[in-house]
């Protein structure tokens, strides 16, 4: 299906508005944990499952995205995901207990897990190659700013209303997106029917076990045999999953694309970039509260300058990549990461809010130059038929690495060891910059 420029813009705008709202739900609940603990009379470890469970279900359904896009028209698929998210949100709002609330939360996670790879791959496929950098810059704006905006939105709503208002916000916006989508969302791709491989889906459950183990590391002991058993079983399942995908003629997920030059680097670099972004989003509010002494509301608002800069830079960095190539743009991003983390490490003892905000802005600026350009670099190395598989691989690996970053930061943080966190991620991004120099920049410049 051929789209006019106007219909393409409306299509992408509606898609991104829905994705932005769903993305906010991934990071918005951390601010509300104390409220949930009091409301349900549960410890923080139980409440954390609102985020952990959400991320687990997201990760396990991401590999299903290519099959769903091949076998279902995109418009009904997208609208169904919106309906599922809205129903899950209604269940949360009226949940009589925490268990019912978790059911609604898992429904939300399912929609986000399918949508994350789908919307990126379909945008890539309907966008001319020489415009992908700019368009994916807008996609990066949605992903990056949503992570930062989540705690801000929840902090403001909790200050004024109750916790149900956070989910009420999602409900109102996504209802409007659904109505808009009835008119603007289309199904531009041809279907390619294939059998559903239940065995591969079962094996992919190893992702849940791996992420569960990663999330439990911070408070488990060496003698915790159950968690170690979960890790071993999960690794076996994932090994069998990978081997099956590589041997099948029509795999659930084409993992052989990881051998394609630039795609492998795109996966690694976008994941390493995301690790810094999600760590800043979670660690800096704690730094503002525990070291500088800000209230939860102001610690959330202190993220606004960095989020605003990220939003402003994303599309501009994408346009720059279209003009001069991805390698120099991604290099700028990782240099900014190093400067930002080094600044936090060197000046943290000054306990100055403005220096901390400035360093956070530099790190998030680095994300604008690194994450989506690296994603687009990887996509450009694939044929259109493989782009859904590439988007799914990138999204899944990025999710696992994001969870790993959160656990790593939490373990290193311990009792307010913020310098340890800053040093850890400084070292990670210094190592990452060596990968940038391995990029084979096949620039298709238009300038």
TrEMBL record:
Residues 11-444 form the Major facilitator superfamily (MFS) profile domain. The chain crosses the membrane at residues 48-69, 81-103, 139-160, 166-186, 198-214, 226-242, 263-288, 294-313, 325-347, 353-372, 420-437. It is a multi-pass membrane protein. It is found in: Cell membrane. Keywords: Membrane, Transmembrane, Transmembrane helix, Transport. Its main location: membrane. GO terms for cellular component: plasma membrane. InterPro entries: MFS, MFS_dom, MFS_trans_sf, Sugar_transporter_CS. GO terms for molecular function: transmembrane transporter activity. This is MFS transporter. It comes from Lentilactobacillus rapi.
